[in-house]
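Quick question about two entries, pasted in order.
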Amino acid sequence: LTSLSNKLGNLTSLIVLDIFYSLSLTSLLNELCNLISLIILYIFHYSNLISLPNKLKNLISFILLNIFHYSSLISLPNELGNLISLTILDISHYSSLISLPNELGNLTYLTILNISSCHNLILFLNIIFFKSL
């Protein structure tokens, strides 16, 4: 699998999406952000994925976002701070992640944040701005 179908965005009633082990996938479509009913998203093991869609901010129903094991991503979009219903964020095993966006401090319902095995994470002081942890 090298790309996701742009028809994915038509599944507006979808509530759970798992995307696993596609080593050739380099980006996620902005159409993913049309899944307005989506509450759980798992994206695992994409060694070539270099970006997440900035329009993730449109998915305000999210309660669980798990983006796990990326070797190419070095940053997360600031727009993740707009996921106002998010309660669980797992961004573990990012070998290149060096900082967290300050906007994550806006996640007032966040109760679980997993950043394990992010060995290059150096700018972590902004975690003190998390109101709910």
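Here is the second entry:
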Amino acid sequence: KVLCFYTGTEEVEEERIIGKEDGFFISWKPQSGDVISYVVDWCEPHQDLFCNLQWKKLGPNTTFSLISSDTFRPGVRYNFRIYGISTKKTAYLLEYKTGYSQELAPLDSPQVAIANLTSRSFAMTWKDYSTESQPGFIQGYRVYLKARARQCHPGFEKVVLSGTIYLFLYSFELLLFRGITKATI
């Protein structure tokens, strides 16, 4: 029997990890003192609200493990927690890691609103949306502007901001952290 001790006040930062075909390589800092083993747990999400909690117990001299499963799916975010088990059979949360076995392009782009339009500037805003539900990490955004005299490339949607500026909404990009690649929508 192991007691889990986590009050929610510990300073445990989330670290992003990148999965590979054979699973997730997870490593952590060695703990000194009374750690007699480590446990890595993760949840395999299902369609309903429940998840299939999985764990792997490792020895006290181990500081890494390959976590593999036939059920890891592309575009699904997995959260891993690493616990140290003390001699008193108490589990302490040491590290928290999150990643995708394979990142996919975003499902949708934010709904953009333009305000405070002048001949030289404008404000662009959009509502925050859940990054947990996205099939990859959102790294940032790009906005492209083009002078009116230029032609718009086929497939781009023009929105007139003023007499001299068009905003090409189709070229609004969501960049995803996917190794060295990026996805555009």
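Reply: The chain has two domains: 3-100, 112-177. The CA atoms of residues 1 and 89 lie 7 Å apart. Hope that helps.
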